[in-house]
Structures are given as structure tokens and as C-alpha cells.
Amino acid sequence: MTQDIDRLDAIVAMAPVIPVLLFDDPESAVEIGRALVRGGLPVLEITLRTPAALDCLTACKAIEGAVVGAGTVLDIDQLTAAVACGAEFLVSPGASPKLIHAAEGSPVPLLPGVATAGEAMTLAEHGYRRMKFFPAEPAGGAEYLKALSSPLPHLRFCPTGGITLEKAPKYLALPNVMCVGGSWVVPADAVKARDWARIETLAREAAALARP
Ligand SMILES: O=C[C@H](O)COP(=O)(O)O
Ligand SMILES: CC(=O)C(=O)O
Question: According to its UniProt record, which reaction does this protein catalyse (predicted)?
């Protein structure tokens, strides 16, 4: 189907930050997911970058209050597998013609990545109105994204890539930003130490950011 904008808007309205997650095992994935939900970040983007990612996605579906999606969806096989595991949304770092074609048959919405006005216009021709701006900081940051809002006012973005608690407000203040994504709320050292309380604290700080 064409992008289900109402469904995506309902998901991103749940929190100002979508944690971008790399999970190695389902048990710690559930602990981290629970800490994020407790801290006020219920929308979880589990990237398909690890061998255990789909098992982790399946396990996290059991977390009360969580809305679990798949990130780094690069092709039709990953899209199909993520949907079969119960992903409620899909995210990609960019958009290839084959992925866009595959998403037309998907029962859950895709948030595709763009880094330029031309890429955004191509996706808009396919009915997309919600996109990831990736990689946000290296691609030009908030100033760049702000510049896109004049010629492309009908498009809204979730910038991701290099964003921190300190950098998030300048994105969230833009008219064409609906939320931000980032991995800063789940630092590798906290995961290694199984410090779920720290992850909950980081989530709470992120959840308190002013809504766009
Ligand atoms: O690949 C990067 C993810 O999209 C998140 O980026 P980040 O680790 O800079 O927050
Ligand atoms: C970076 C990103 O958007 C993804 O991995 O899906």
C-alpha cells in the first residue's frame, strides 16, 4: 500500500525519540526494551544488523506497552521476515526501487531514509510523506533539514544519525520534524554492565524533550 501516514503518525506521536537498537540476544533485548518503556520511550526500532535481531524483535513483542519495529530493512527478504515476526513498522537507511516496490505489498508502514531533496521528491512521487533523514549530522544537520522545509513543506522527517540529547532540541524545534532517532539512550557500556537503571534514566531524559 501507499505509506500509511495515519498509522506512522500515531506511532511517532508516542515519544519524541525512537531508540535505534542493536541487540545480540533476546534476554537482554527484553531487559533493555522494558527499561526504555519504563523511561517513557515505547517505540523500539530493532535494527536487522545482528544475527539475533529477528529473535530479539519477536521477544520484545511481549513487552507491555512497547511498539516494536524493524530497522535497517534493506530488501524484500528482510521486509517479509520482519513482518512475519510482528514488526509494527519498518525503517530503512535509504530507499531502493526494489525496496519501495516490496513495501507496496507490506501490511505495515515503511519509514524510508533520505539524505537529499531529490531522494525525498522521488519518494513523494510514490506517495511517501514521512521519511527518515539519515545520516542526519553528517548529511548537514538541522540547518540542512530546515532548508528542505520551504520547498517541501508537505514532508516530515525523523532525523537520525549522530544525534544526542544535547543535539535533539534543535531538530525537534523544526516544523518538518516529527521525532528524532538515536542510539545514545542505549550505550554499549551500560548494556555490557547490564545497567538497566541507567538506560531507564537516559530514556526518561529523552522522553522529556519538548515535542515537535
Ligand atoms: O546507524 C545509525 C543509527 O541510525 C543511529 O545512529 P546513531 O548511532 O548515530 O544514533
Ligand atoms: C539507519 C537506519 O535508518 C536504519 O538502519 O534503518
Answer: 2-dehydro-3-deoxy-6-phospho-D-gluconate = D-glyceraldehyde 3-phosphate + pyruvate
